[in-house]
């Protein structure tokens, strides 16, 4: 059985601080072997021993070193033609030997030299202690990673001669192909991460310094068994549970929220899926309190700018829409349920009523941050200029006509054509239009006061969205990280522009904004494995731009149901959410035994240590594929640094779309976990 794959990535990820942290992550994944008297842990010396010590200590199992020496090609010793393991087992790659014409005498000389070094190391490491007996026992072989797997294969073959009852391989990082190959050879394989492409083991570590003989000796002399167990209250789940703050329905008490948020001007509230009722409902309730009690004056959502602005007009008593359902009808693009759902509808109605009651006080608005509205934003720019400057509108039509070679409202089709030469690039036209509307902004703004300023700001941001969307859609075909960063930078720029725009009210206190977006945007990328790719997030950019005036709050769940599609553009379904994987932050929070609570290292420093460990984190977007959940929906995170606080709701239910289909009503037949039988 192979577990914990990490496929579908575009570049290596530095996941672990060092070998010790990697061992602790592996120990979580090997929990089924804890306190079993038949289990022993062998670390492949030298690099595997620091990892193995953490595993053995957590499992309360004996530890020993298993030595494997690479057999290097004469004259090119860095290139292996085989390996030599403890017990004298030699594994030779016959294809390499034949291809390089290594003669038997050279092969024997290399093996004898490495054999002498192997014997020296065994004597030095054990300091007279006999090897641990492995016959009839379950052996967990641990290394700091696998590349070709030659050393591990030699270890497995050597161990087999001692007739253990079972062999388990556990490594922090390895190519998926190598892990799957070993899955057919041994009883269990645990690969904490499988970077794609895989370049080298060291790429998964921030600190991959060479392990010394002295360090190996010290670790082997440090007991992993017979040490008094820590009190149960010191387990990570117990620590978090002891200081967790109850949050019924996901809504923490006002006192805790007030302390957490303080004087922050930007509060980003996430969601670990785009289709969970409790996340949306709790976020809406927290936002209502922030607006009513803390003076927040805007919600900025992971939604397209023009579609959200239609809802903004409605909540401020403007426009022609007669109800919230109609005001949200602009959200036609997949996935419409993200914003056309019962929770957002009710919130928009509440916000309109609140604004009506507020009288002369500053009204609260509803805005979008996203950039998918290429054609819709072009239409809105032209519509604005038709009202204020018909000649400028004619120039805008001519410029934006460049995009007519693609099908209407299909930004991806434009990007594909422009990227591969099947159509012209409209970058120059998009930039020219943005520059012109910015150049004329002062004149346009003088006409009708604040209302004109709002309309101008709306048009300017639409022109900026066209410019950024044009770049984004072309970048989609040059690399995932580049296009992701363009999108989150656009959202951060829009957020900052909105804050500055709302600050224009000189008689009002500084503007404060609530952001609604997915955890993968709200969390700080620097605390996740994607940072090694150079990937940015809105949360990271908010911290960099606003410092302590920004707060990041994430949501999580252990199991339940979710509204999601099976494929992009698919129908909304009500899907069963699998219980969270072992080694995940969701599993840890589930183990506290609490139904709904807030945990934060800022509010309760005792939670810092368990939240600072590297764990898997689940992210369900608009697509949920349970059958490939580890590959599709998990990545490594350090929660204490990713968020300022997390709200965990153990069991959640699917968000209800405004347009409910028979497929959604029928739901999904629950699986029998973990086998599905």
From TrEMBL:
A Pfam family the protein falls into: Pribosyltran
Annotated GO biological process: response to antibiotic
Top-level taxonomic group: Bacteria
InterPro entries recorded: Emycin_Estase (IPR007815), Hydrolase/PRTase-associated (IPR052036), PRTase-like (IPR029057), PRTase_dom (IPR000836)
Signal sequence segment: none
Stretches assigned to coiled coil: none
Domain Phosphoribosyltransferase: 25-177
PANTHER family: ESTERASE, PUTATIVE (AFU_ORTHOLOGUE AFUA_1G05850)-RELATED
Name of this chain's protein: Phosphoribosyltransferase domain-containing protein
Organism lineage: Bacteria, Bacillati, Actinomycetota, Actinomycetes, Mycobacteriales
């Amino acid at each position: 059985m192979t577990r914990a794959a990490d496929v579908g990535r575009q570049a290596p990820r530095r996941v672990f601080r060092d070998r010790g942290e990697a061992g602790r992550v592996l120990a979580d994944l090997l929990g089924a072997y804890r306190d079993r008297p038949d289990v022993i842990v062998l670390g492949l010396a030298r690099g595997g021993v620091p990892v193995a010590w953490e595993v053995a200590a957590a499992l309360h199992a004996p530890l020993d070193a298993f030595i494997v020496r690479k057999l290097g090609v004469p004259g090119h010793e860095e290139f292996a033609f085989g390996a030599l393991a403890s017990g004298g087992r030699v594994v030779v790659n016959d294809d390499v030997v034949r291809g390089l014409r290594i003669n038997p005498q050279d092969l024997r000389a290399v093996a004898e030299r490495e054999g002498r070094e192997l014997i020296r190391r065994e004597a030095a490491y054990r300091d007279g202690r006999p090897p641990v007996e492995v016959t009839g026992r379950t052996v967990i072989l641990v290394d700091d990673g696998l590349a070709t797997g030659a050393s591990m294969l030699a270890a497995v073959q050597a161990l087999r001669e001692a007739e253990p009852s079972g062999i388990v391989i556990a490594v922090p990082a390895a190519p998926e192909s190598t892990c799957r190959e070993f899955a057919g050879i041994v009883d269990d394989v645990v690969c904490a991460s499988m970077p794609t492409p895989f370049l080298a083991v060291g790429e998964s570590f921030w600190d991959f310094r060479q392990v010394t003989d002295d360090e190996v000796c010290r670790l082997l002399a440090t007991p992993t068994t017979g040490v008094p167990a820590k009190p149960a209250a010191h387990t990570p789940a117990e620590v978090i549970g002891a200081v967790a703050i109850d949050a019924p329905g996901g809504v923490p008490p006002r006192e805790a929220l007030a302390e957490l948020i303080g004087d922050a001007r930007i509060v980003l509230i996430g969601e670990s899926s785009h289709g969970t009722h409790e996340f949306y409902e709790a976020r809406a309730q927290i936002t209502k309190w922030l607006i009513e009690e803390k003076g927040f004056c805007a919600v900025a959502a992971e939604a397209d700018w023009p579609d959200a602005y239609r809802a903004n007009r409605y909540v401020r008593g403007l426009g022609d829409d007669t109800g919230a359902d109609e005001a949200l009808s602009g959200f036609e693009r997949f996935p419409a349920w993200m914003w056309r759902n019962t929770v957002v509808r009710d919130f928009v109605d509440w916000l309109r009523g609140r604004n009506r009651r507020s009288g002369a006080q500053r009204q609260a608005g509803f805005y979008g941050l996203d950039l998918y509205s290429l054609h819709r934003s072009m239409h809105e720019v032209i519509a604005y200029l038709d009202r204020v400057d018909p000649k400028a509108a004619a120039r805008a039509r001519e410029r934006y006509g460049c995009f007519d070679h693609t099908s209407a409202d299909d930004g991806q089709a434009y990007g594909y054509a422009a990227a591969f030469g099947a159509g012209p690039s409209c970058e120059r036209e998009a930039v020219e239009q943005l520059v012109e509307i910015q150049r004329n902004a002062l004149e346009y703004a003088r006409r009708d006061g604040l209302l004109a300023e709002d309309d101008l700001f709306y048009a300017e941001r639409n022109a900026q969205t066209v410019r950024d969307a044009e770049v984004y859609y072309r970048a989609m075909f040059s690399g995932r990280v580049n296009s992701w960063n363009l999108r989150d930078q656009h959202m951060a720029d829009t957020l900052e522009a909105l804050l500055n725009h709302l600050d224009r009210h000189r008689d009002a206190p500084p503007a404060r904004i609530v952001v609604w977006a997915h955890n993968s945007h709200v969390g700080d990328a620097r605390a996740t494995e994607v940072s090694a790719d150079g990937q940015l997030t809105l949360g990271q950019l908010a911290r960099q731009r606003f410092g302590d005036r920004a707060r990041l709050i994430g949501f999580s769940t252990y199991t339940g149901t979710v509204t999601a599609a099976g494929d992009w553009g698919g129908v909304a379904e009500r899907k069963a959410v699998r219980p969270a994987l072992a080694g995940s932050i969701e599993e840890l929070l589930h183990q506290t035994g609490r139904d709904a609570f807030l945990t934060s290292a800022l509010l309760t420093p005792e939670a810092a240590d368990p939240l600072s460990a590297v764990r898997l984190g689940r992210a369900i977007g608009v697509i949920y594929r349970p059958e490939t959940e580890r590959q599709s929906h998990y990545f490594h995170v350090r929660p204490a640094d990713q968020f300022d606080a997390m709200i965990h709701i153990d069991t959640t239910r699917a968000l209800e779309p405004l347009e409910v289909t028979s497929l959604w009503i029928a739901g999904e037949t629950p699986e029998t976990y973990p086998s599905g039988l």
